[in-house]
Write a structure and sequence with these properties.
transferase; 12 helices; 5-stranded antiparallel beta sheet; alpha+beta; 1-phosphatidylinositol 4-kinase activity; 3-stranded antiparallel beta sheet; PI3/4_kinase_cat_dom; EC 2.7.1.67; ATP-binding; 35% helix
């Protein structure tokens, strides 16, 4: 591996005066308008209570009611972690729940794959660029970024707490739950003083379930032999670009063609059309094919450094033909104004802080490093959009981090802040995987 080096340069100043003009001779990076001290931002998340999103709250409530009525979650046979399909009272799958302690590297992971990985190849176990056991926050964080940017490709995901006999609990937790239940049943005067009866709720990510989708790999193979209509291909290109933007900003280290989804409904005749109409083959009687995408499995994102040891964790969509097409005007108009505004970027960091701080192992210094990587990704993406580059050209750009000056990491966000741009020259041992 190459010797690690670092070139550090100050970013061009974007200090704005009161009248909105920009002074290019100053050396601070952005003018911002509100307090940034992360410790002073609003209190901890109230789990399973979403007053600003009643629709999502209703789905969570449906899952809770189903659990109360003995309708247990179903453990997914796919993947390398505890992933459960939550059902409503009619036994219809409505969401996917991934507990924190059952993540790929969690101590209660019910799948043996990662245990074998750790046993047989401990030197390559885990991902050194990621914060351990924060996959559930990464899932929710990806949804937050998706909504903030208006991409609308991630099924809505939030952090919740749920309990079920189906989840993988330790023997001690199950024994404690049985003991409390027995005491409550036999000595109610004592049992009523317990704060909780039953198994403890698990914290994890709760993602709304999407119907009618298949692995992208399935449809991409079909599209190779069955070309899409021009209008549908154009729409798919726009949706593909949104997945690219999401993955690049959050630096997803686990994006293959088997963990993002495509929903495709081929062209059909309009309702009410007769057989004669169909035989006449008038295109006005035929509806355009419908296509949609869903970016799921975002639990291995938001690294605190760029991959620089064994593996590079490339984006597998970079080998698709769609990645060679320059970014469209549509995605440029959607994102450029937002991503070019350092106030917007800092607001995004604040929102992520408000989410990430709920973890018991949260460390502000590590979080700042995660945001430094994300700012660098946003900087590269903004430049690529301005230059009209393609996704494959985007991933070929030198990786960069944008660090906030330590003197400005305090209780208030100053009128102007200094950010430092760093280019890393250390490459992973394997660049292809």
């Amino acid at each position: 591996m190459e010797e690690e080096k670092s070139d550090r340069t100050k970013i061009i100043d974007r200090h704005e005066s009161v009248n909105g003009s920009i002074d290019s001779n100053t050396t601070v990076s952005s003018h911002v308008n509100k307090a940034v001290d992360y410790e002073s931002i609003s209190g901890p998340i109230t789990y399973n209570n979403f007053p600003k999103d009643p629709d999502f709250a209703a789905v969570v409530r449906e899952a809770e009611l189903a659990l109360d009525h003995g309708i247990v979650p179903k453990l997914s046979s796919k993947g390398t972690s505890g992933c459960y399909f939550m059902q409503d009272q009619e036994k219809k799958i409505i969401a996917v729940f991934k507990p924190k302690d059952e993540e790929p590297y969690g101590h209660l992971n019910p799948k043996w794959t990662k245990w074998m990985h750790k046993l047989c190849c401990p030197c390559c176990f885990g991902r050194s660029c990621l914060v351990p056991n924060q996959g559930y926050l990464s899932e929710a964080g990806a949804s937050l970024v998706d909504q903030k940017l208006g991409l609308n490709v991630v099924p809505k995901t939030k952090v919740v707490r749920l309990a079920s006999e189906t989840f993988n609990y330790s023997a001690i937790d199950r024994a404690k739950a049985r003991t409390k239940r027995n005491i409550y049943n036999r000595v109610p005067s004592v049992g009523r003083h317990f704060n909780r009866i039953g198994l403890p709720p698990k914290i994890g990510s709760f993602q709304l379930f999407v119907n009618g989708y298949k692995d992208a790999d399935y449809w991409l193979r079909r599209f190779d032999s069955e070309a899409l209509p021009e209008s549908t291909a154009k729409k798919f290109q726009h949706l593909f670009e949104r997945v690219v933007v999401l993955d690049y900003i959050i630096r997803n280290t686990d994006r293959g063609n088997d963990n993002w989804l495509i929903k495709y409904e081929p062209a059909s005749t309009k309702a009410g059309s007769s057989q004669g109409d169909i035989e006449d083959a008038e295109w006005s009687m035929v509806e355009n094919p419908e296509i949609a995408v869903a970016a799921i499995d975002n639990g291995l994102a938001f690294p605190f450094k760029h991959p620089d040891e064994w593996r590079a964790y490339p984006y597998h969509w970079a080998w698709l033909p769609q990645a060679k097409v320059p970014f469209s005007t549509e995605i440029q108009e959607l994102l450029l104004d937002q991503l070019s505004d350092m106030n917007f970027v800092q607001d995004l960091c604040d929102d992520l802080y408000d989410l990430f701080k709920c973890d018991k192992g949260f460390d502000r210094h590590t979080f700042e490093k995660q945001m430094s990587v994300m700012r660098g990704q946003i900087l590269n993406l903004t430049q690529a959009l301005k230059d009209g580059r393609s996704p494959v050209q985007l991933v070929q750009m030198p990786v960069v981090t944008v660090e906030r000056n330590k003197s400005t990491v305090g209780r208030t966000r100053a009128d102007s802040e200094i950010f430092t741009q760093s280019f890393s020259h250390r490459a992973p041992f394997f660049s292809w995987c």
